[in-house]
TrEMBL record:
Native species: Diploptera punctata (Pacific beetle cockroach)
Region forming the signal peptide: none
Keyword vocabulary terms for this entry: Coiled coil, Developmental protein, DNA-binding, Homeobox, Nucleus
Compartmental location: Nucleus
Source organism phylogeny: Eukaryota, Metazoa, Ecdysozoa, Arthropoda, Hexapoda
Name the UniProt record assigns to this protein: Homeobox domain-containing protein
Homeobox domain residues: 22-82
Record-linked SUPFAM superfamilies: Homeodomain-like (SSF46689)
Amino acid sequence: MPTKRYGQANHLNLFNNRQQAKKKRKSRTAFTNHQIFELEKRFLYQKYLSPADRDEIAGQLGLTNAQVITWFQNRRAKLKRDMEELKKDVESTKILTAHKSFLENVQDLGILKKKSSGATVMVADDKGVPT
């Protein structure tokens, strides 16, 4: 039994030490509209910045190098997500277009289908169902 108590106490001490050792995170930076506009403008033609470019932008906009680095990393990740979503949308549209085309072809076949005697043509109603 003494080992079990030691284990529990030891576990609690580890937990307490871990909480105390945690660093307080820096609060989220709220960029101004002007800063975002300038960062987006630069991102349009330059996805990656050299250290000199980072220094220049950080100085112009009153940001730290780390903030500029993080903003560009996050913006590249957002671009990647947006491109993947767009790709899925295009694929989905292709499938829907193919399905619609198939249904139209089936409907056309129903309209043109003749009875075995060859004299009567079947006509489809407004929903594409032969009558």
